[in-house]
Amino acid sequence: MTIKALVWGENVHEQKSEIVAGLYPNGMHAQIASLLEMDSGITASTAVLQDPEHGLTKDVLAQTDVLIWWGHAAHGDVQDEIVERVAQRVWEGMGLILLHSAHFSKIFKRLMGTPCALKWREAGERERIWVVNPRHPIAEGLPEHFILENEEMYGEPFSVPEPLETVFISWFQGGEVFRSGITYRRGAGNIFYFRPGHETYPTYHDATVGKVLRNAVKWAHNPQPALTTINDAPNVPVEKAPEAIKERGPKLHKPGEEGYR
Q: What is the pTM assigned to this prediction?
């Protein structure tokens, strides 16, 4: 089975910064997609903020197995309606991978329910990424640690919920550490946050980063059919109770009436 991945990019820095445009002449989203397609089991398409409905129409999302999200300068420009649409698909079982500054994206904060804040410093520091969960599928084929020579520092505390699993921890030249690869599950959807990816550095040209992203797509993919009933809250009639019961006492709702939300 081929996994259908969709790489969503903000596509703002590439248009405004000569440095970013030089590193990613076709856009960061296109470079990330090219890393994914090094695996014959993954097909990758792209969408950007400027597309109609941000490229995240209901039909597109319905055909997406795993969504990869990179954003930074224009989190607030993402329409709330689209955020809810993406959240619904994650609850139904679509995988979601958040990259770098996507920690402040509306969709990550919506699914985490926390500020998702952190310390940061843009100084081109060496980042040593330690594999702390070597048997996790996202870490398959990786060394004990790997180095990115230039990256933006992110430091703890990271105001997110306690992860389901921590796969990577980063150390920076300035001394800070950060949980740089963490997983969650929301509804039927698998979520992975991966820290590296500052736009002024060639992070998405790094072979090991590409390996992490391909592993993450395969891990996040849920092959089961979409759980489209996840928001249903049916009013179960007395006669359909698993065991025979007799109705008694007053009630607010008529038979079959929707509950309050």
A: 0.95
